Amino acid sequence: MSLLTFSRFLSFSSSPNFLSFHRRRLPRSLFRFSLAASKGAESSSLDDGVAVLWFKQDLRIDDHPGLVAAASRHRTVIPLYVFDRRILSRYSDEMLELVLFAVEDLRESLKDQGSNLMIRFGSAENAIREIVKEVKATTILAEEEVEHELRKIIDTMQEALASVPLPERSPEIVMWQTPFYDIKDLKDLPPSYHDFMKLQLPMTSPLGPPRLPPVDMGLDWGPLPSIADLKQFMDGNPSKSKEDWTSIKETVAEKMLLNGRVDQVEVSNTLIRGVELMNSTGSNRINLNHEQTQKKRLQKSAFVTSKGNLVGGGTNAVLNALDAYLRYLEGTSRDDWQEVHEKLRENESRDGASFGTLFGSALSLGIISRRTVYHEAIKYEKERNAGFLSPFGYSAATIAAAADAVFSMEWYWLMALKSQINDEGPFSVRIWRWNGYLIQYTVVGHEGPAVLLVHGFGAFFEHYRDNIHPIADRGKRVWAISLLGFGKSEKPNVFYSELMWAELLRDFIIQVVGEPVHLVGNSIGGYFVAIIVGLWPALAKSVVLINSAGNVIPGYASVPSPKERRTSGAAWLGARLLLPFLRLRLPSIVKNCYPTKMARADDRLLNEMLRSSYDPGALVLLESIFSFDLSIPLNYLLKGFNERILIIQGMKDPISDSQSRVAMLREHFAGIVIKELNADIAPMTSCQTK
Known about the structure:
- By secondary structure, the protein is an alpha/beta fold.
- It is built from 26 helices and 15 strands.
- The strands form 2 sheets. An 8-stranded mixed β-sheet has the order 8-9-11-10-12-13-14-15, sandwiched between helices. Strands 2-1-7-6-3-4-5 form a 7-stranded mixed β-sheet, sandwiched between helices.
- Helix 9 (240-250) packs across helix 11 and helix 16 (370-384) packs antiparallel against helix 17 (397-421).
- The longest helix has 25 residues, at 397-421.
- The protein is globular.
C-alpha cells in the first residue's frame, strides 16, 4: 500500500445546502428546495397533507435530503420500507443479511426521532397504493434511481397511484437526490472526467438527522422479519427448478475449473424452467447462523453477517468501522478496530482496493452516503495535519482510498443518471447494478430468441452499433453490454480477470435477460463467452466467436492450480507508461486495427475511447493487460459444444496469424462452422447480419 496518493481536493460548499428534486410527471419539471429556508419555516406553513417517504437503497437518517425535506414541509410523515422480491432478488445472501440489519437499525433510529418505520411485504406499488388510500397521502418521496429495474418499479407505482380515488387529486411523486456537487443542470455535465475536474465544483455538506413529527394515526407498522421469515418470503413457492437456477449463479468460476467441471453440456428441463421463472419469482437461498450473527453484533463487530466479509449494521456501526479504517496507520488496542484492520490487510489485493470490498455494500444500500465518507476522510486528514490540507495529496493511503472511491462512484452515478434523463445517441441506455457497480447496456427488439453481444478489450457496447438493429430486425431480441471497466460502465478499484468478467456475464444472463442466449463475442470478449459455455452451458443456446482471443492446445486435459494474482510493480509502472502513449497515438493505433475499413475508426469511436481513458479507474483496468491468463484453451472450454459453434475469422487481423489459427481450429474442432472473411480484427463491422 502506498503511503501518499496525489489527488485533487475539493472544498465543502459554504453556501446553503440545496437539495435537488423533480416531480416524476410528464413533462418532468426540475425545482430546488432550500434547506436553509426550510429550517426557518414556521410550523403554520407546514403542509397538512400526509407524506409517505419510501426507503429503498437509502437506509439511513443521517445525510438524508428526502427525510429532511419531508420533515420540514409536512405535519405527518410516514417512513416506509417494502420487502419487494424484485429488488431483493438482485442481492446475494450476505447482502440480504445486511438489508435486515440496516432496516432494523433504521427503525430504531426513526423511533429515536419520534417516528417509526412501516414495513410491508410484496410489490412496492401495491403497498404504497394501499397506504395512500388508508391515510389519504398527498406526497410520495423517493430517491432518484439510475437502475432500469428500479426506475421501472417507480413508473409502475406512478401508474398505480393514478388510479387511486382521492377526493382532491392524485398524490404527487417527488424524487430527491443527495448532491455530492452543486450541479445546476446535468445537461451541462462534461462528458470527460478530466474536464469535469477542471470545474472544481465545491462539495456540498452532509445533513444531520431531522426531528420528525410524531405520527398520531393508529397504524399497523408491521413486524420486522427474522432471517427465517425473509428466507421463506424469498423462496416463495419453492421448486426444484428455482434451486437449480440459483445454484448456477452461486458457483465460483475458479473452483469449477479446478474441479474439472467443464463440458457440462446436458441441459436439464428443470434448469430451463428455472431460467424462465427467474424474473417472475426470484430465488435466493439463505443459510445463516443466526446465533453467530447475533454474537457478532453483541461484540460490536462491524462484520455482522454470517460470512463476516462486509461492513454492515446501522449507520453508526459503519461510521465506527470507517473511523477504524482511516486510522489504520495508528494501530489500536480495540478488538473491533483490530478486526477492521485485519480485514483491510486481507482485501488489499491492490492499493486501496480494500475500501470498496469492505464498504461498497454499505454504500450501495445507502447505510452511509458518499459525501459523508468524504467528509469523514477530510476531517481526519485535517486532524493529521493541524487543520490544513496539503496540495500534494493525502497523508495516508486509507484516506486516499476512501476519498478516491467515493469520487469515482459519484462520477459514474452522474453519468448513469444523465444517460437516463437525456436521449443521446442511437440506442437507449439502461443501467444494471452488479455487485454494487453500475453497468451500461442496451436492448433492442421485442420478440424472438435472445442474443447477447460481448465486445473486446478497450471497446464498449456501441462497438456493435452496425449490428444491433439489423439483428433485431430479423426477429431477435438483442442485448449489448459495456463490461465492467469499459465504456461508461463503472471502473472500480478491483482486480480484473477473465473469470470475473465471465461471472458478470453469467449474472447478466440470469438477472437481466432471464433466459438462455445466443452468445456473440469479439476478441477477448470471445474468450469470456467460451468460459460461459464451458462452465455454465445451460445459459447458452449457441456461440459465435469473432476473431476470438484464446489458444488451441491439442491434448489439454486439466487446469493447473492457480497462483495468487496481484498487481505487480511492473504492471503498475507499465500501465502508467502505456496510457499516455495510447492517448497520443490512439487514432493511428485504432486505424491500424481496421486495415480493411479504416472509416470504422471514426471520431465517434475515437472520442469515446479517449474520453474513457480519463475516467477514474482507467489505469487500474489497463494494469489488467499484464495479468490476463488465457492459458485454458478454447478446445478445452468448448468441448462437447462443437455443433453449436460458429467461428468468424477476419483474415486480415493485424494482431494474430489468421491462417494458422483457422488451420488449428479446423483440425481440433470437429463439427464447428468456420467463416473466413476478408476483414480485420472486428469482422462484424463488415458482415453485419450475414
